[in-house]
Amino acid sequence: MGRVTARDPRFIASLREATRGEVRENEPLAGYSTFRIGGPATVVFPAGPEDVAIALRHADNAGVSWFALGLGSNVLLPDAGLEALVIRLGKGLDGVRSDGDRWWFGAGLPAPLVARQTAAAGFAGLHKMVGVPGTVGGGVFMNAGCHGAEWADVVQRVTVVDPNGVDRVLDREEIPFRYRRSGLERVIVLETEVALHQAEPALLEQEVRDLFEWRQRGTPFNQPCCGSTFTNPDLPPGGHPSGLRSAGQFLDAADLKGYTIGRVQVSPLHANYFVNLGGGTADDVRRLIEHARDRVRDRFGVRLELEVKVVSPAGEIEPTDGVRTDG
């Protein structure tokens, strides 16, 4: 007898009975990915935090793997879809509350909305996240950031739930944040508490507008993409002899802007953004990643690591230093 997957009709039926939220089967994941790439999967839409715990316990009892998905940025989902249960974090986990400089955000809340809302209230610390696609939960999980700010700067506590459906609160000191990593493994973020600082609302809102306009001008903001493909390289003291610093600069200097494989292209606007020209596949992206990485390594001796999370059909994240291709 083969192992049970989230596509099993009996598993789907029992999950529907156990949760208040909707469960969809054979749901195309491309519609939940900013890359507009991804095959079918069983997706549960939790009505609240308790549904997340129920879904995790249900999957654990059945031996089914799972994958948490927010707004679908910074992930590359497989063309074949997922055998894992997709737990879609959005409505039902999008609450906001505040008490002085302390704010609490549900994991399903979009980060750009958080940036605008806190800036309008006169609190700084997250306003620079206006150009970061994704949810609060995803942002904390990968320690997302931009313009010199990241979630680790403001996080005080994070409520998570483990595969057994048990939730707990982690203090900041218990979370091993580093560049674009949180160290939170095999848990789902439910809520985050942050400490912000007061500032003039008009000035913050102007900065939010400026940053958003910069993002629109400097990146393929309105095209299907995942955000940054690679993290900035960890260079030795003194930097690289070329003077290049960021992943985008190395990719640009390697003459990769506009390079296309299949229907996926290195953006002519910003080389660290790969865009789906329409009909692009995960395999196109994988091959373009390897080509770009090899070109930079051959020309500059720098090995780029992935920022985008490449997801296997089992719902597991592949290593950042290499991807498998189907060809």
Topology, pairings included?
Elements: H1 9-18, E1 22-28, E2 40-45, H2 49-62, E3 66-69, E4 75-76, E5 85-88, E6 96-99, E7 102-106, H3 111-120, E8 123-124, H4 136-142, E9 145-146, E10 149-150, E11 155-161, E12 167-171, E13 188-195, E14 197-198, H5 201-218, E15 225-228, H6 247-253, E16 260-261, E17 264-266, E18 273-276, H7 282-300, E19 309-310
Parallel strand pairs: 2-5, 3-5, 4-19
Antiparallel strand pairs: 1-2, 6-7, 7-13, 8-14, 9-10, 11-12, 11-13, 15-18, 16-17, 17-18
CATH topology (level 3) name of the largest domain: Uridine Diphospho-n-acetylenolpyruvylglucosamine Reductase, domain 3
Round the mean pLDDT to the nearest integer and report it: 94
What proportion strand?
15-25%
Task: Tell me the span between the first and last alpha carbons.
Answer: 30 Å
Helix content: 25-40%
Count the DSSP helices. 7
Structural class: alpha+beta
Major pleated sheet: 5 strands, antiparallel
CATH class of the largest domain: Alpha Beta
Cross-sheet strand order for the largest sheet: 6-7-13-11-12
The number of E-state strands comes to 19
Q: What's the shape? A: globular
Radius of gyration: 20 Å
